Amino acid sequence: MMEHDQQGDQHEDAAHEDAANEDTAPEDTGRAAQQAAERAERHRSGFVTFVGRPNAGKSTLMNALVGEKIAITSSKPQTTRHAIRGVVHRDDAQLVIVDTPGMHKPRTLLGQRLNSVVKTTLGDVDVICLCIPADEPIGPGDRYIDQQLEGFPRARKIAIVTKTDRASKKAVAAQLLAVSELREWDAIVPISSVKGSQLDVLVDQLVALLPVGPPLYEADTTTEESLSVRLAELIREAALEGVRDELPHSIMVTIDDIVPREGRDLTDVYANLWVERDSQKGIIIGKGGSRLRQVGADARAEIERTLGTQVHLDLRVKVAKEWQGDPKQLGRFGF
Ligand SMILES: Nc1nc2c(ncn2[C@@H]2O[C@H](COP(=O)(O)OP(=O)(O)OP(=O)(O)O)[C@@H](O)[C@H]2O)c(=O)[nH]1
Fold first, then answer.
1. Distance from Cα 266 to the centre of ligand 1, integer Å
2. Looking at ligand 1, which residue's alpha carbon is closest to its atom 26?
3. Which of 65, 69, 282, 321 has its CA 20 to 30 A from that of 262?
């Protein structure tokens, strides 16, 4: 009701102004409406995804573009497990970003399932970006993924040379040349997510390749990923910190419950940290529980930032024997 009244007032005000400037006002109104219609006609929207070998900088780039920490980053390869969407909003465009796990030659059942997630995602998007680090030579892993792109002829393709802050200008130029020889790209863009350089150029290029269409999401959306998945990812990221061996592939986190305490600025989060073997349980827990305490403290700090309340984190370490090769266990973890 209130809103209607206010709108009514505004219309009246506008009518007054029209009367005062009889010659120009109707024309102005017409022009404004026409401009809005033209803007709507030019508005672009669509889906974009980043592929590349493990550690190529995909998650970091997506976070830099969306401006909120939603996909986990780590110095360990193959740590992105979910196709997380982030949305970049602009007046003239909306980019929906789908983050994919690193595409790689599958060795385990988990690897195969990840690849099938990647393939479903790629079949659906408007633009595929292949990320190749500036500071490492193009290798068989990059070529394998580049060849896979042949299977998705509908999508436009951009090559992104990542981590340019880690290479000299000359090395970046050489990498751009090497990348250009892989295939006919719609664009090739060198960027640094850490320095934030060339990200605007990349977004411009992406937008230019999207189809004309209305916004797909509300303006305040940055991610569709459910809260428990986001919190699970934060805990997994904390658990991966400082683990030097093969453990990253064996860690999985599930959330049982997220319960705000009534009348208090405090949320209880109940989570399980799954490993594959008893020996790994020992590594995670550490001497006298010291490592687990650290993981809990690190994860809690990140979760508090996400939830905006204090957090009590109940974190339990459990063993799911060889879950990466077990279809039942994989199903339980959502693969
Ligand atoms: N110096 C520098 N480091 C970067 C940049 N982008 C990413 N990194 C680092 O490279 C490592 C891997 O980055 P991620 O974003 O996790 O890579 P990813 O491709 O998502 O990796 P997976 O999840 O394994 O597929 C991390 O240690 C990042 O901090 C960059 O622009 N500059």
1. 33
2. 75
3. 69
